[in-house]
Specification:
Length: about 300
């Protein structure tokens, strides 16, 4: 935990721009050793439009399950979160069964923190939920109303570092069902703070709280906040990051269509509007409000 005069950025939940360059030697991969002609071009194996080509059944093995009890809590958390990220059946159930016993005994070391970041950016909300549970355990945060009582003063009135930490922890607690309405009000109280870092983490917190009531305030921030980085954060929270469901995200499309044709928005914000529409709907259209509105009308006429 950082001191009260520092800001913590533990989540790194900005849409990750990972400069990951994979060098591939062009050629073919042998599918069956010693089998003449049994080769598959790498380009075919990596074809994004092709069907999934599993390496094995994505099931947590009996060997792994049997070995968990002999592992340290840290190693359990790292293995199971990695398996969750890779959609191994049984991993999330094991996390749910063990996470309370990890509280206060695991830390976000480099490996677990990297897994946590990856899990928070998963396309599966179950994996993001697993990441949240692991984070709360690593931060030794009890999931109860007493914790909300303890964190609320820091979230409302604390110095920057403590306040940011409290906003984040409260958002995760609310997402896990601990007084979500009260948590939402605490986050909203910081949404227009004069401190840009507090506003940023209030926006982030609302996205991770993930309630219906958090959507409209995020739309208002996206449209009206004076700082581009906070408008962008609100856009990301509505479109892709955070804990909103696909159904919740689609409810903002009509408002985004209005934003796309709003002359009061600057060019950069309008670009984020179109990016958000693409992320939510999966449609790839030009940055043209009329084109998007026509598509939406056709889609809802079916």
């Amino acid at each position: 935990m950082l001191s009260s005069d520092q800001i913590i950025a533990p989540r790194r939940t900005r849409r990750l721009t990972v400069a990951c360059i994979v060098s591939i030697v062009f050629g073919t991969v042998c599918v069956g050793a010693g089998m003449a002609g049994a080769t598959t071009p790498i380009s075919h194996l990596l074809d994004a439009q092709g069907r999934s080509n599993p390496a094995s059944a994505n099931l947590l093995s009996e060997h792994e399950i049997e070995g968990l009890d002999s592992m340290s809590p840290q190693n359990q958390a790292e293995l199971l979160l990695e398996r969750s990220i890779n959609h191994y059946r049984g991993a999330n159930e094991q996390i749910a069964a063990r996470v309370d016993s990890w509280r206060g005994t695991i830390t976000l070391n480099t490996r677990l923190n990297n897994l946590f970041i990856t899990a928070l950016n998963s396309d599966d909300l179950r994996v993001r939920t697993a990441a949240i549970e692991v984070d709360l355990a690593a931060r030794n945060t009890e999931k109860n109303s007493a914790t909300v009582d303890r964190l609320e003063p820091d979230a409302r009135f604390g110095e920057q570092g403590r306040r940011v930490n409290a906003l984040w922890d409260l958002a995760l607690l609310g997402n896990r069902g601990i007084e979500p309405e009260r948590v939402g009000q605490i986050l909203l109280s910081s949404l227009h703070d004069s401190n840009k870092d507090i506003r940023y983490w209030a926006v982030e917190g609302l996205a991770y709280l993930g309630t219906d009531e958090a959507i409209e305030p995020l739309l208002e921030v996206f449209h009206d906040d004076p700082l581009p980085m906070i408008r962008e954060r609100a856009a990301c929270g509505l479109a892709q990051s955070g804990m909103f469901t696909d159904k919740q995200r689609r409810t903002v499309v009509p408002q985004l269509l209005d934003f796309a044709e709003d002359p009061s928005l600057d060019a950069q914000t309008r670009t984020w509007v179109f990016q958000a529409l693409r992320d939510i709907t999966g449609q790839t259209l030009s940055h043209d409000g009329t084109a998007w509105r026509n598509w939406y009308s056709r889609a809802n006429a079916r």
